[in-house]
């Protein structure tokens, strides 16, 4: 074809001038879905997992593929730039732009069909990889590529990036596992594309219309650039940089789906995808090889490849060191062999014998000085793989280390040259004074991941980052490698592509872009005509964030709220649908704004400020308040988030300032002041319970207290735990193990005192002398969770006064309510960072199980010999951990199914507050409640948290969960294990109140008669 028939290159155009108001109105009128142009949404979508930030024009969340098509049409009419987004975890900036963002993940996430015989399926782009594979499991099939973000990445995002993951060693990239795509161009052409045989290609190019024009242009590009593509495209398995022009070559079957894979939403909008599937491996084994150095490990990769591994990953000592510092994957780290660097090698087999035989062959072939560990237990293999998959989070925000960043995190080179490349990369680090960043990655494909301590907050630091990246690009090109091995180019590498491909192929990319998107409206500035790699930075040389005074000390963020707000790195683990606790509100709503990441983005925008900031630096921000409103303050993110974002603390700090000097929500008074309210109720609990049982009284009380009308008012105990203690006459037993203070938290003391009595019984049986504080005390939890931090500090100060002598004697404090225990173990020290008695309280506070395991290791608990479903309280999961409880339950003969079902959804005051009931119950129904309902009557239901117990009781399950103390105490007594809970009294409980009312009325009438008589 004559060169004049080549498509014209796209040209750089002035940024689109879009009337956002008119665009929003038209989208609302014509798109079936959610259209959001508010400041909060735009802030939540302003960045991805990269160093870049661009505030979008607005966000569309289509309910159907047809709705998305309508959104593209409206954007076209307004000339608005457009960007598709899946999980939003991209590391090169390809998922943020000044554009209309289409978020597919909330609704367009269906598995549409499965052809098990031919191993294919059709999906919508918003389906999450792990969710897809769970649905495919019944067919014995799965999708091959598996990035580390598999719990939350979407298929559409994987197509956009041409994702890989560790399993690409066996199955290849997305481009190798894709049959067809249904796509939509910006100008409205909708078509299915895939491999095209010669007859079909002739038919298409001979036709008329836009589709024929596209195919003729593609043929012209192939014919013009085929030689250059064969010459300059690196012949390595991880060439992800650039457009896939090689898919147009005859040997690739003129594959348009392959061409569009990895195009990062710059060419088309993907509507549906037909995927090629693979069988689920029947058996696997994992061999971990230990080496003295990561470069030597890389040198050994070609020899390992001879054993045809299904996965072959490299991990260096820095990554292991960082995980130990951050307490990540502790059990798995203990399993590693001797060494300072590791290769993790997975082999598969149709039988256990085959998989183990391949593992043995690998071990037999290794050098004698290489240590090894071998695993074929499914659970242990899964735990070991978490060491590798935690790489990004483990290398970010390491205590005592400078912050690290993307920017050169994804290079790939020929496998046989990997060791030498790593040595040269080390020298480059040293040249630029970047120390020794961790390197790890998909070594079986020569792909290297790292995070580098760039200084992105000064002009000099940004310039140095740019100089480093340019030299690193030259280095990887000299090795015949690719700038990107799976993360894509986006903005961080788009400018560098000319180094890898040369100007002629860059012109080919521009012509391809011009063919599909001549007006440059599809994700402009990424890959083609790219933004500079040092512009649109999330931080940047002009980054001068607002530094407000705070009540919490934020010791892990240099005492700065701005650093806490910038902690999120965008990995998106908070958007997973299963496993761990984080993030219950996202799982209930599937809203970015109601994920840990989304809230962190809003807080970052609030402190960032600047002319383009959608949110002003002001604690009174309604957008931030609304995003935090559905945060359950479960603290799940404090542990589950790879960088330990602690949204519960951020929320408490925000609410403190947001409501300072003005009226608060009613729930802040009724439930925030619950400890004080409970003490008043203790004067006449029977009467209060009877009144609360009257429907009209309950309705009025809940309305006045800001309580959800669907909730039942908890029943107050007629005798508090502390009253029982005083009547009992104090400690009993010889206490040969020493003295302990049992903490009388509000929930145990006023609602479930039987738990306190049971704990005393168990502790005394184990040889401890029990004390209970004489004065009224409280941890301040309810004031912390509602952001009344000054009150919380006063309450904690009083508590320290009461406990001071015990603390200075080293007496342990035993917490029975996990949320209160967590205050002592975490929050208190952040409110009083320099108080030595608070530090003593933190170190000396223990759960019941921790105390018995640590200080009564030789005590044999009574035999329970029962099955149990166990719901861990979120604060215990996040702060104290559950290891001691597991050990104690095992010693007591309890066959415990410790649920990995997320938050119960009640979360203290959250589930009781008006407006939260639906989200609260959705959280419970996503995991906990179905398991409780399925448990037979002989199975115990354990929940140490008052919230967890209340949620189960009020959900109509017919079960009243038990505290660990109650289970052990009942076994000590040889009694059936039954919960002892207060029950509402009958109407007769109101007789004293009625009599008192009648007497008061009579006295008032008599007084009125006397006054009348005197006036006569």
Topology:
Blueprint: H1 20-30, E1 33-36, H2 39-44, E2 58-62, H3 65-78, E3 82-85, E4 100-103, E5 111-115, E6 120-123, H4 129-136, E7 141-142, H5 155-161, H6 168-171, E8 178-184, E9 190-194, H7 198-206, H8 210-232, H9 256-260, E10 269-276, E11 278-279, E12 283-291, H10 294-299, H11 301-305, E13 311-316, H12 317-325, H13 330-334, E14 341-349, H14 352-365, E15 371-375, H15 378-389, H16 391-394, E16 411-412, H17 418-431, E17 439-441, E18 447-450, H18 459-478, H19 497-516, H20 561-565, H21 584-589, H22 596-608, H23 622-629, H24 636-640, H25 647-658, H26 666-670, H27 674-681, H28 685-692, H29 695-705, H30 721-728, E19 739-742, H31 746-750, H32 753-765, E20 769-771, H33 781-785, H34 789-808, E21 813-815, H35 818-831, H36 836-844, E22 845-847, H37 848-855, E23 866-870, H38 874-880, H39 883-891, E24 894-898, H40 917-925, H41 928-934, E25 940-942, H42 946-954, H43 964-973, H44 991-1015
Descriptive account of the structure:
The chain is α/β, with parallel strands linked by helices and 1016 residues long. Helices cover 43% and strands 11% of the residues. The strands form six sheets. A seven-stranded antiparallel β-sheet has the order 15-12-14-13-17-18-16, sandwiched between helices. A five-stranded antiparallel β-sheet has the order 5-6-10-8-9.
